[in-house]
């Protein structure tokens, strides 16, 4: 089916994204912000599934290219309606295939003890966001490889359908060709994602192999991320060449390459950051003795009488008897409408205590980070063995620590030289 070559230009990629303590120094509350651009479709296998608005661009491009160019090229003299029905149907089935690919990652991840935060379909394909890293190279390998295998299985399924369905020569044949296209594009989806360049699935497979071979996950992740960056550059260069010789379509490669390059760079620094936090304990990072407020205080009282004295992004709330009741953040306070500030108590807008991650001062920070990432506000309270609140950990604490340790390692390098 060589004539289907134009579809290379829309090859979808997907990503397994491990959530990582990112920070740019600001104590910001990102929960919910990203979801606003996404439409929630529901849950599959217990994982929330959403689509990003950007997918409409690709949906339209694919449906149009099928209905207007490819199918008429194969089967002339059919009605426009037939082409469009087949084109739209095939495009819907393509996104269903993409979703099946992501869901297979999610199912295997959950079976391997890795939580899945959500699946999103967007401009370049799909993203499955994992809540933590795989515990073993074997699990890392299985979570990654199942995606392309699912795409190959779907390619086989659509291929068999094409083989079995009768060739009548009528407008049904347009549908059969659309199924043939689905077989082809699933094959491409599987093959492209097996290229050993992170963040593609093949990059994960490479990481798992290097991890198993060398025993060092960080080094393995760094190498996989570097090949990802190299591949990103190659795509950008090819895209520019194609843009200069063929035309606009080259820009697609440029965008795709640039996206891969950026994602791979992010992965490399995330791997380095994880390793720099490996031997750090909660007490090294936490802000000690956090300011607490009475849970019955109103938002107005807080804004008028208290807040000008402090500059923190989150405040634990305590009952009159001193018992911890929850955690409120500046983002939550900001969302209270001016009319309701006088009657809204802090506890009404707080994250209730059972939902706030809690750590102990001596706990390794990566363990707490995993719990923080799954929490609504991304912050944790630190409680000592006597049950006293001794600290709070926020994303800015982590960002500050990472920046500091990077600066220190620079100093050490200079002193060695
Ligand atoms: Zn995948």
Describe this structure in words.
By secondary structure, the chain is α/β, with parallel strands linked by helices. The protein has helices spanning 55-74, 80-111, 137-164, 172-193, 201-214, 217-245, 250-277, 282-285, 299-306, 330-334, 346-349, 365-373, 395-416; strands spanning 13-18, 38-44, 47-52, 116-122, 125-130, 287-288, 293-294, 314-318, 324-329, 351-352, 358-359, 380-383, 389-393. The protein has two domains: 7-277, no CATH class; 282-405, CBS-domain (Roll), CATH 3.10.580. Strands 1-5-4-3-2 form a five-stranded mixed β-sheet. It has a four-stranded mixed β-sheet with strand order 6-13-12-11. Strand 4 and strand 5 form a beta hairpin. The radius of gyration is 26 Å and the shape is globular. The protein starts with 12 loop residues before the first strand and ends with a helix. Residues 1-9 and 21-36 have low confidence and may be disordered.
List the helices and strands and how they pair.
Elements: E1 13-18, E2 38-44, E3 47-52, H1 55-74, H2 80-111, E4 116-122, E5 125-130, H3 137-164, H4 172-193, H5 201-214, H6 217-245, H7 250-277, H8 282-285, E6 287-288, E7 293-294, H9 299-306, E8 314-318, E9 324-329, H10 330-334, H11 346-349, E10 351-352, E11 358-359, H12 365-373, E12 380-383, E13 389-393, H13 395-416
Parallel strand pairs: 1-5, 3-4, 7-8, 11-12
Antiparallel strand pairs: 2-3, 4-5, 6-13, 8-9, 9-10, 12-13
Bound molecules: zinc ion.
């Amino acid at each position: 089916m060589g004539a289907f070559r134009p579809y290379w230009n829309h090859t979808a990629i997907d990503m397994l994204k491990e959530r990582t303590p990112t920070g740019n120094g600001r104590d910001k509350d990102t929960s919910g912000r990203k979801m606003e651009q996404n439409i929630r479709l529901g849950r599959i296998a217990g994982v929330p599934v959403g689509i990003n608005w950007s997918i409409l661009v690709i949906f339209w491009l694919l449906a149009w290219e099928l209905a207007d160019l490819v199918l008429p090229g194969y089967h002339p003299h059919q009605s426009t309606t037939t082409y469009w029905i087949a084109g739209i149907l095939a495009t819907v089935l393509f996104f269903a295939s993409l979703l099946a690919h992501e869901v297979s990652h999610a199912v295997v991840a959950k079976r391997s003890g890795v939580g899945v935060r959500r699946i999103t379909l967007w401009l370049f394909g799909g993203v499955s966001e994992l809540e933590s890293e795989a515990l073993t190279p074997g699990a890392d390998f299985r979570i990654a490889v199942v995606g392309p295998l699912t795409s190959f299985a779907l390619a086989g399924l659509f291929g068999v359908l094409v083989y079995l369905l009768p060739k009548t020569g009528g407008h049904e044949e347009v549908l059969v060709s659309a199924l043939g296209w689905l077989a082809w594009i699933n094959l491409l989806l599987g093959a492209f994602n097996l290229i050993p360049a992170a963040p593609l699935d093949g990059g994960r497979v490479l990481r798992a192999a290097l991890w198993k071979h060398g025993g060092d996950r960080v080094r393995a992740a760094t190498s996989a991320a570097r090949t990802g960056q190299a591949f990103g550059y190659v795509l950008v260069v090819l895209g520019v060449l194609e843009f200069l010789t063929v035309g606009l379509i080259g820009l697609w490669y440029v965008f795709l390459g640039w996206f891969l390059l950026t994602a791979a760079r992010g992965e490399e620094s995330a791997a380095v950051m994880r390793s720099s936090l490996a031997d750090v304990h909660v007490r090294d990072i936490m802000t000690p003795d956090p300011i607490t407020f009475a849970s019955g205080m109103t938002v107005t009282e807080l804004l008028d009488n208290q807040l000008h004295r402090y500059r923190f992004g989150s405040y634990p709330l305590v009952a009159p008897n001193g018992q911890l009741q929850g955690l409120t953040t500046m983002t939550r306070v900001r969302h209270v409408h001016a009319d309701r500030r006088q009657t809204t108590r802090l506890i009404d807008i707080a994250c209730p205590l059972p939902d706030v991650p809690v750590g102990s001062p001596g706990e390794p920070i990566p363990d707490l980070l995993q719990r923080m990432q799954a929490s609504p506000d991304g912050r944790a309270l630190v409680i000592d063995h006597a049950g006293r609140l001794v600290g709070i950990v926020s994303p800015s604490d982590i960002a500050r620590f990472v920046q500091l340790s990077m600066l220190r390692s620079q100093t050490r390098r200079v002193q060695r030289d």
